[in-house]
Predict the structure.
Amino acid sequence: MILDVQNVSLNYGPLHVLKDISFSLRERERLALVGPSGCGKSTLIGLIAGLRQACAGQILHRGQRVESPSRERVVIFQNHALFPWATALENVEFALRARGRKNVREEALHWLETMGLTPFAETYPKQLSGGMAQRVGLARALAADPDILLLDEPFSSLDVLTRDRLLEEVLPALTALGKTLILVTHSIDEALFVGDRVLCLSPRPGRIERVLETPFDKPRRLIEFKRQSGFLELEARLYSWLRGQEDLREPDSTIYI
Amino acid sequence: MNPFLLPSPTAVVIAFIELLKSGELLLDIWESSSRVFAGFALSVLIGTPLGLVLALSPRWRWSVDPLLQFLRPIPPIAWIPLTILWFGLGNGPAYSLTMIASFFPVVLNVYFGVSRIDPQHLDVARAFGATAGQRLREVIWPAALPSILTGYRIGFGTAWMAVMAAEMVASHTGLGYLIQVSQNMLRTDRVLVGMVCIGFVGFLFDRAFLKLQEHWVRWA
Ligand SMILES: Nc1ncnc2c1ncn2[C@@H]1O[C@H](COP(=O)(O)OP(=O)(O)O)[C@@H](O)[C@H]1O
Ligand SMILES: [Mg+2]
């Protein structure tokens, strides 16, 4: 197991955000994490990244306890968190220099090329479209050469066409690199398309409610993926589960402990 | 109108040409400018690291900030008597006044810029394994640079005003002295020449800072 999350709980004051979360990741596995907003997905990603500490339980990364951030577990955020003062190229170069590399320009250009960004090397983030910025974020994360990629809703703010294209182009690249990854998403087809398994997190407190295996082939194109038999049924199951979670949230003042 | 109270534009132009020809005016502009640069450079050298430390260390903030906030309302002119006692007439009081005047805008804007950095950018830097030096050079500094340069620009402007006060009281050269001595000699035309030069040169410096700022923070 590359990652072991063991009985992890976290409170913010009286609010139980995560309760007794346990799961493991296999080498090269892709795990999708879904759940209604506010259920603690980002919090969990932060814990795995080492940006925060759990109140109870522990997280092991290749047997080592996660206690601080490390470039072996890089997060890609929804808002891409690119450095606005640096060009696309300089953003990628930063990740390489942080790894202790010298003469980073060539290598940075290579990562930009992987993401189809060569013409945008000298562009500043604010001049990039959402999809392009997210590509730079991915290039920067890949340049850090992490063991596990943590993607916290990186595609949520993109329009569907941009997202589909990005998914179709990025996933094969990630497969080729053999990356293990966790993808947080609201989108059911995204979760099923990317995930070997889908982990469903219920809110207040965040608990793993169920784990779905996705027994599908992984064709390159999303549209072909969705045509497979069984897809609609699994999609419907996930959808009604998510809707059920939404309903739980109605009495908004209640905190389930 | 009485030409002593408000001389005609022609009289001012004539006085201007006179002062320019004698070389006096350019010397005064040079003297005032170099004093401002000296005090301003001191402020930048001391104020920039201090602003950084204040923003990054709660302990320093806790102990130094009250002192800063206590000194800040004291106007630069109020320091003149002390600085004359300490340094005598001449450049000493001018250097200290320009420094005092630019110090607070510099420190406070550096502090402001650094404390406003998006914590997510610091998380990213930490997660990528950047060393402390790298975080300072490649994240904190560029992120805060717009505020820092604004602080420098404002600080230079306040130093430019302060040098005039210092020269009017404690010096024998400079545009401030020109105004002071011309008033004593009832040369209102020269007073006006001095004022116009203070305004114009100050404006030019400010423009130069603005250009530098635009050049260094193209990304914003
Ligand atoms: N720093 C914090 N302090 C207090 N509460 C927080 C903090 N961060 C998140 N929360 C709360 O924890 C819950 C989970 O947040 P989050 O992990 O961002 O959810 P998700 O990513 O699933 O939308 C939310 O109810 C949120 O309000
Ligand atoms: Mg979130």
In short: Residues 71 and 104 of chain B are 9 Å apart (CA to CA). The mean pLDDT of chain B is 93. The pocket of adenosine-5'-diphosphate (ligand 1) is lined by residues A 12, 17, 35, 37-43 (CB under 6 Å).
